Amino acid sequence: MAISYNMDRQNLEPNDLARHIRSWGRELGFQAVGITDIDLSAAERRFLDWLKAGFHGEMEYMARHGTRRSRPPELVEGTCRVISVRMDYRPAGAADADAVLADSRQGYISRYALGRDYHKLMRKRLANLAKRIEAAVGPFGHRVFVDSAPVLEKPLAEKAGLGWVGKHSNLLHREGSWFFLGEIYVDLPLPIDTATEPHCGSCRACIDACPTRAIVAPYVVDARLCISYLTIELHGSIPEELRPLIGNRIYGCDDCQLCCPWNRFTANTAEGDFEPRHELDSTSLVELFAWDEARFLQRTEGSAIRRLGHERWLRNIAVALGNAPAEPAIIEALQARREACSPLVREHVEWALGQHGIETPESAG
Fold first, then answer.
1. Which of the residues are catalytic?
2. Which of 157, 198, 330, 345 can bridge 162 by disulfide, Cβ–Cβ 3.0-4.6 Å?
3. 228 is in an annotated binding site
4. DSSP notation for 217-258
5. Binding site annotation covers 259?
6. CB of 251 closer than 8 Å to CB of 231
7. Domain boundary among 186, 217, 237
8. Is 253 among the annotated ligand-binding positions?
9. Residue whose C-alpha is closest to residue 269's, from 120, 24, 30, 92
10. Which residues pair with 181 in a beta bridge?
11. Residues 6+ apart with CB under 8 A from 205
12. Are strands 220-221 and 249-251 parallel, antiparallel or unpaired?
């Protein structure tokens, strides 16, 4: 028996509404739109096991919300369906990622953070999608999310047919994994889409490519070893044994995506806002290390990088400079920061100088 709504405006049937939602989503710049139910019981078990193992590190917020992350109605009362969307972000104009990684004098920033912050852009588009739905069916219960609340976005997207969770724990599909995810929790009993079958097979490219071996088992990442966690989420000192493995990655890490065979088929984004700003795709570490806080705030305005803060920005670059060639300009840049910096940054500067054979107060003592 078909479910009918009180749709006086257009008298749409659920299947028609779902078809319109997908079409409206594409018009708003989403490359895919899917609909799923709210049964995340299998994902909940995996998530709780991951937390129990301590793989979330200092990300206490991952455990703080209990089952609200895996049971949508506990987060938004009345939710019975989730509209999941993806938006491609690989910028066409960015310097070649492999070339930047190979040049240890340059700073590597994850491709997703080179342009404007995706959160506001996607939230606005999702809010517009919700308005179109409301125009068709009248007021309805909903809430928009873009990495902004306790949501298991990857399992939801997988159930909605947007792709499958790969062995690196990211969502991917036959056109790659360079995309953002967003959701609308709704109280409309829409027809649901079919989940995508996984297509990783015996491939272990991402497992082998991870510089810190953070993918401790297929589909399981120990965040405490992940360079994205170390350079973005970790607030304190980066463990010394991991610093040499970070290389020149100063904000995030894309290695598990760069090596994925499916990413050979990825299309570049059509969103101009995701193109690199301020030459962040190809700037030298020495130049980036010279930014004072005012410069950092000016250059990262509207960027996801700003949440890092100037102190951790310098911490990360200090580590990268320690992994760079022992050239005069690099040594001078480190020595210039030796005194006028916080204890956290100074610790990493002294480590970096030690990597280049420069005596530190600790080694001299």
1. 147
2. 157
3. yes
4. ETTEE-GGG-HHIIIII--SPPPGGGHHHHTTEEE---HHHH
5. no
6. yes
7. 186
8. yes
9. 92
10. 86
11. 259, 260, 261
12. unpaired
- Tell me the pLDDT tens digit for each residue of 107-130: 999 999 999 999 999 999 999 999
Number of compact structural domains in the chain: 2
> What is the longest distance spanned by two Cα atoms in the chain?
81
Task: Return phi, psi of residue 363, to 5°.
Answer: -75, -30
Has 80 been labeled as part of a binding site? Answer: no
**4: annotated binding-site residue?**
no
Which residue is listed with tokens 């980066």? 238
Tell me the pLDDT tens digit for each residue of 132-182: 999 999 999 999 999 989 999 999 999 999 999 999 999 999 999 999 999
In which region does residue 124 sit, left (phi positive, over 0), alpha (psi from -120 to 50) or beta (all else)? alpha
pLDDT band at 2 (very low <50, low <70, confident <90, very high): very low
Whether 279 is covered by a domain: the verdict is no
Chain position carrying tokens 């005596």: 359
Q: Under a CB-based contact definition with an 8 Å cutoff, are residues 93 and 191 in contact?
A: no
* Residue range of the domain that includes 307: 284-365
pLDDT band at 7 (very low <50, low <70, confident <90, very high): very low
Q: What are the structure tokens assigned to 43, written together? A: 């994902």
